[in-house]
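I have been asked to look over a protein record a colleague put together. What it holds is a sequence and that sequence's fold in token form. Please read both lines and tell me whether the tokens look consistent with the sequence. I do not need a full report, just your reasoning and any doubts. This is what I was given:
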Amino acid sequence: MTVRPIVTVGHPVLRERARDLTLDELASPEVQSFIDDLVDTMRHANGAGLAANQVGEPIRIAAIEVNDNPRYPYKPRIPLTIVVNPVIEPVDDELVEINEGCLSVPNLRGNVHRSVTVRVRYLDRHGVAHEEVKRGLTAGTFQHECDHLDGVLFLDRVTDPTTFTTWEQFERFHRAAFVERITAFVERVGS
């Protein structure tokens, strides 16, 4: 297993729609080893998720996991989930404003509107099909990673550019109010 370099905004691979994998490709030792590298890279960077194109591979795989993450202590836990060829759709029209950052957009955060409840269909790393409903910040995390696989960055979803902030300024001026608001949201929706 290897920690791979994470590509940053401006790299063309981040703007490509990643291609679907066949079951044979997914089962290959190369792709299984790549998934292990993706997980190691995500954990090393303290990310809540990481899409394959963020490490330069335009294939539809993302790793998602939240466990006592120092970058996101307010996020509910998400067990390690590997999503392959995901399809995501909102369940209703309810939205929540989330302050997001991204490993491929270092030291910048901004507010985006995400669907509160989504349905996600995907294959796991063993090719087993899943269909799940995700809510709250967990739904936001899945949307963020699926956006990557479609060549979309959180920057594209920020509708109010005055919400852009560096990590330092977020911590200094905005974190307390955001954490208070998002904690109440998590308590209301349960995840």
